[in-house]
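Lecture notes, part 5. Sequence design as translation. It can be helpful to think of inverse folding as translation between two languages: the language of shapes and the language of residues. The source text, in structure tokens, appears below.
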């Protein structure tokens, strides 16, 4: 189960100018594994433009003013879906990815500071949000990831699904067409982003008429992920779900088929 650094997340939304991943990240840069290939070459960091650029100056001034007004954040997920939260996160993204896109090394640094994901998980998450293999992710994708992590932190994962389920399905299918279907492999790949494993997914879907060989429509995608995320919001761990399902299987076992010698 993924753990989210609430302090860093709140600072990104409240004080985007001061919040820096370097203050929270504790691990050195690690290359990709042999299986996934080497890290892409890091793009040189470009400093935020000075106040001579009127557009950047206005954005910076607006974000500082809104950040000062937002001194207390009770719920990062709700704040992220306000105009103030979006403006502040845009400023943070602009300062840390001045080209308008975040490369893989920058992404790894941020996710290390923001979560307890392992490096190989961070790389897989990056690949999910970079389906065209451009080596970059844009703000909209970064916002989606932050919203998901904030939802996990605050127990609002089903709310996240209602708001962003369509975008998540499009990520899985690598297409904007929600009428097409995806495979179970594409469906379950989101587990690494949400912080659940195959055991939890299988156990949560045990009562649903579902096979890993079936293609999954958008409506089924929403239904299945709701079942999984609802468990998380209610504090049911993967192990609890798995053993509860196993216990039910035992209780439902046909006693006539049991070994009479036992």
């Amino acid at each position: 189960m993924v753990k989210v650094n609430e302090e860093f997340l709140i600072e990104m939304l409240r004080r985007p100018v001061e919040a820096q991943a370097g203050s929270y990240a504790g691990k050195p840069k690690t290359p990709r594994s042999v299986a996934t290939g080497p890290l892409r070459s890091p793009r040189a960091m470009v400093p935020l433009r000075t106040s001579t650029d009127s557009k950047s100056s206005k954005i910076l001034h607006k974000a500082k003013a809104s950040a000062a007004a937002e001194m207390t954040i009770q719920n990062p997920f709700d704040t992220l879906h306000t105009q103030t939260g979006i403006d502040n996160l845009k400023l943070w993204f602009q300062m840390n990815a001045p080209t308008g896109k975040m490369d893989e090394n920058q992404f790894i640094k941020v996710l290390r500071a923001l979560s307890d994901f392992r490096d190989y998980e961070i790389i897989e998450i990056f690949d999910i949000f970079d389906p065209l293999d451009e080596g970059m992710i844009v703000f909209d994708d970064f916002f989606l990831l932050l919203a998901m992590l904030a939802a996990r932190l605050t127990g609002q994962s089903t709310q996240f699904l209602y708001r962003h389920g369509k975008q998540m399905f499009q990520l899985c299918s690598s297409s904007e067409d929600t009428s097409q279907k995806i495979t179970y492999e594409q469906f379950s790949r989101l587990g690494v982003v949400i912080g659940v494993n195959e055991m939890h997914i299988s156990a949560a879907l045990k009562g649903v008429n579902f096979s890993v060989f079936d293609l999954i429509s958008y409506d089924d995608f929403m239904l299945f992920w709701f079942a999984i995320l609802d468990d998380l919001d209610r504090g049911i761990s993967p192990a609890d779900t798995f053993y509860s399902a196993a216990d039910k299987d035992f209780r439902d076992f046909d006693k006539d088929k049991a070994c009479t010698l036992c």
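The translated text above is only one of many valid answers, since several sequences can fold into similar shapes. The beta strands are 101-103, 136-138.
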